[in-house]
Amino acid sequence: MAKLKIKKGDLVQVIAGARQSRGGDRGKQGKVLEVYPERNRVLVEGVNRVSKHRKPSQTASGVTAGGIEIHEAPIHVSNVMLVDPKDNKPTRVGYREETVERDGRSRTVRVRVSRRTGEDI
Q: Self-association or partners: how does it assemble (predicted)?
């Protein structure tokens, strides 16, 4: 299982699939709601919306109404790209190692860096 470069809370852009003019999600930007590293998928807000038909049911807590629910489905991580906070365009992600000194100890920290502008993410 490879380590993903996209984390929960990141702003990403869809780079694959049908264009928005054809009813697709390519070019849409959204916040990552959840990451599923074991399946290499991410859940993005407002992207890959699917409708689910629910049957009315009765549970111990009460009655749930039936109908059509619309919610997001996971999308493969290779189909999204992190958005550079500086210019709001998609960018590749790199890492830079920094030595940080805290409480008299020095430790090496990996920092995510935008390949487009070189800024920290």
A: Part of the 50S ribosomal subunit.
Those residues whose C-beta lies under 8 Å from the C-beta of residue 44, and which sit 6 or more positions away, are 12, 14, 30, 31, 32, 33, 72, 75, 80
Q: Which residues contact 120 (CB under 8 A, 6 or more apart)?
A: 111, 112, 113, 114
- Tens of pLDDT along 57-96? 888 777 888 899 999 999 999 999 999 999 999 999 999 9
Mean pLDDT over all residues of the chain? Answer: 92
Contact predicate 44/51, CB 8 Å: no
**Which of 5, 24, 1, 23 minimizes the C-alpha distance to 78?**
5
* Predicted model pTM: 0.83
The torsion region of residue 112 among left (phi > 0), alpha (psi -120 to 50) and beta comes to: beta
Q: Quick one: pLDDT at residue 1?
A: 67
* DSSP bridge pairs for 95: 112
